[in-house]
Amino acid sequence: MNPLDTILSVTNLNKRYGALQALKNVSFEIKKGNVYGILGPNGSGKSTTLGIALNVVNKTSGDYKWFSGTMETHEALKKVGAIIERPNFYPYMTAKENLELVCKIKGISYVKVSEKLELVGLTDRQNSKFSTFSLGMKQRLAIASALLNDPEILILDEPTNGLDPQGIHQIRDIIKQIAAMGTTILLASHLLDEVEKVCTHVLVLRKGTILYSGLVDGMSANNVFFELQSDDNETLIAALKTHAAVKNIAIEQGKVLAYLQENLEAKDLNKFLFEKNIVLNHLVKRKNSLEEQFLELTNGK
Ligand code: ADP
Ligand code: MG
Fold it and tell me: ABC transporter domain: which residues (predicted)?
């Protein structure tokens, strides 16, 4: 892969706020064209991670590099569109005037204003004062503003917080549209279903530690298991241990759970066991839902 396809790489990032260690050896890579979600409960370090990458929070140790280190951070950040705070514009200016002001400050052509207003569905309201906007409209205006210079990556911190269901739906649709146009996206969210609906990749963060990073789909792929029962579970377990596809075995409420490391059809497992003289009285193939896995990953431990 072309090194320029790496938009951001973070290596062993640590952050302390006094005695509190907010990030512990956080490492990840953001590649061009994907949609990443940093998923974790409140206080897990999502905003801190984004703040450090955007140079508004100081790191304690570790490193991060934009665009494979081909440019200085402040130059690189000109190619980054970010919304990490509540949207804030001039209340008595219209949506259009506010965006034109941003263009003027950043040296961007005014033609971008109507294009981005259209993208976020605010064309009809472009001449309304910002103070008359709902929170959802304010958030959409903030997205339009962050996109004015056609950034390489859009960063959003909890983009749907505080919105009503319709507002949430609109924002998620817009994010998907922006992604479909090829813009890389990194968003932080404590909502599993948001990440599941919008993102291709996920970093699961808990108490400042990354518990999982990879494809959203991959999170469930390695979580297929069989629920089994026979009159003699000990013999059953011994047989399962000899099967190459079985990764590990657990017992739950009298049922034997066989977790897989590669695909295995129910009928093939059944045949394998039957040939070893094991007759099952229960055989179900199951998959942990993303929600179960997320809870498993973020609870306890
Ligand atoms: P998240 O965005 O996932 O909710 P944060 O990155 O905001 O998490 O916070 C991570 C941890 O760091 C939390 O325990 C939070 O209380 C703490 N924290 C965040 N910002 C500060 C700060 N400025 N001073 C002290 N502690 C902070
Ligand atoms: Mg936060």
Answer: 8-232
**Residue 78: strand, helix, or coil:** helix
Give pLDDT tens digits for 238-255: 999 999 999 889 998 889
Using the mean position of ligand 2's atoms as its centre, give its distance from the Cα of residue 157 in Å.
Answer: 7
Q: Where are the domains of the chain?
A: 3-219, 222-298
Q: Whose CA is nearest to atom 19 of ligand 1?
A: 48
Q: Decide whether any atom of ligand 1 lies within 6 Å of the 15 Cβ.
A: no
Looking at domain 3-219, which of 3.40.190.10, 2.60.40.10, 3.40.50.300, 3.30.450.20 is its CATH number? 3.40.50.300
Number of the ligand 1 atom closest to the C-alpha atom of 205:
3
CB 189 within 8 Å of CB 195: yes
CB 127 within 8 A of CB 94: yes
- The pLDDT tens digits of the residues spanning 132-166 come to 999 999 999 999 999 999 999 999 999 999 999 99
pLDDT of residue 301: 45
Residue 234 one-letter amino acid = E
pLDDT, the chain, mean? 92
CA of 85 to the centre of ligand 2 (A): 10
Please, which residues have CB less than 5 A from ligand 2, an ion?
Answer: 46-47
- Determine which residue's CA is closest to atom 20 belonging to ligand 1: 48
Is residue 221's pLDDT more than 80?
A: no
With a 6 Å cutoff on the Cβ, whether 45 touches ligand 1 is yes
Question: What topology is assigned to 222-298 in CATH?
Answer: Alpha-Beta Plaits (3.30.70)
Q: What is the mean pLDDT of residues 9-31?
A: 97
Q: Does the global pTM surpass 0.90?
A: no
**Residue 277, ligand 1, Cβ within 6 A:** no
